[in-house]
């Protein structure tokens, strides 16, 4: 075999030749690896672009009164609305996925099932290597919920809890109260409410009604409930502040940056302000006035319209009037916290579906006509139930949306109650729809719901209808 020669004409030993070839191959491999790493980094860097290309932002959250729930067939909740605003700023659609709990939220995010967690996720060291916290950073803490007014002055210091009766659910509220009791040297009368049919929101209502003196809740839940019960005081904190925010995976730095920038701009936007007011400021209790004229036998100025349209649904006109009274206090200009409008408080999508012309949502006749159409459509879903009993299910659906009533019926059947009877049967399970153990049950398809509102809604309307029948001629 002829020996190779160098450019200078000198012969190269075979060993040197092999070494040169190895070096060339090594450089080639390293170059490829470097290109691969660069490509991988580039692929990771386009996390936000991939979302825009897909045209969809997948948001993970939890069912609750402050994050996400379905009301009258529409997606609602403070975190849901912020997620929708963020998605709109990116020019994409929002898709919601609901997890079971905080741990499940994080696991599903890391598994790639969602792009972002839109929930007040506690900022902890445990997840700092896996998550990037972003968006609005809020401070959460636990507060004492107590009444204002009356002879008893609100507590202003935790030491004043000594000798007081505080009713709490098992879990973090109970544990914090036990620790606080130890810090104070004992003396707080702690009552653990283990009945699974009673939720924290039920306890808050009981405080408002004076049935119990104190309970404990997270400040955001407590604040939301002051819009239902304005006689509450939530100023006394009993825990350390906990930082919380949204989160994305570590490999989505551009999405995190976009969430941070959006939050900075969005804090003063009309949309953000409107969402804050809707959930945490606007009072949700409607004041009611007496019958227009008992002497003249008039319930309202719209009696002639109730009499005109009630026969279309085989209702007594006084029952239709009772529904309107509860919904709007006969105020045609009323707009609820959720966006329902007019005499019969129809949600915008429902009004459109029932044929209300644009701009006529507050016209009393259009509102009543559309409401009776909606009632007629709803009644078909309960055709197996006798007419007198069916009215309760229709009223419940009018308030909550039909999906939550179906969930309550499924729960009633599962637990051995009559799913075709409302009073003391299905109504008890609509109450339980605010309890995690029940709204996460496989038979429930519509998640969390503040069932106490629907429970009271049906009872109030039917009780008032009975009063109307006694006082107002048909």
TrEMBL record:
Keywords: Cell outer membrane, Lyase, Membrane, Signal. It is found in: Cell outer membrane. One of its GO terms (molecular function) is lyase activity. Transmembrane segments: none annotated. PANTHER family: MEMBRANE-BOUND LYTIC MUREIN TRANSGLYCOSYLASE F (PTHR35936). GO terms for cellular component: cell outer membrane. Its EC number is 4.2.2.-. It is an enzyme of class 4 (lyase). Residues 59-283 form the Solute-binding protein family 3/N-terminal domain. PROSITE patterns: PROKAR_LIPOPROTEIN (PS51257). This is Membrane-bound lytic murein transglycosylase F. It holds the Pfam family SLT. It comes from the Bacteria. Its main location: membrane. Signal peptide: none annotated. It is a peripheral membrane protein. It comes from Bacteroides stercoris.
